[in-house]
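hey m, so remember when u said the tokens were messed up on ur end? i reran from scratch. heres the input so u can diff it against urs
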Amino acid sequence: MSVCVNNLSYQVEEADLKQIFSEYGSVKKVRLPINKDTGEKRGFAFVEMETDAEEAAAIMGLLGTEWMGRSLKVSKAIISSPTR
């Protein structure tokens, strides 16, 4: 039950994402990937919600929302299995 959030401000912090997503339910985990070479944020994140209903509510509620100067792109995260 993860949500992918794209087009994030590079100033966003995990706590910011937890706060905005908690309006739609219980946030289990936030992952904010960092570029290993530069140490900078990569402009996207994954937010894990407690239930599918909370996930759907967050997607519908936040899609296209202007936040921190950016229009959020929010969708269900697609988890792929490693190639063998």
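this time it looks ok to me. The helical segments are 14-21, 52-62. if urs says something different then somethings off w ur setup not the seq
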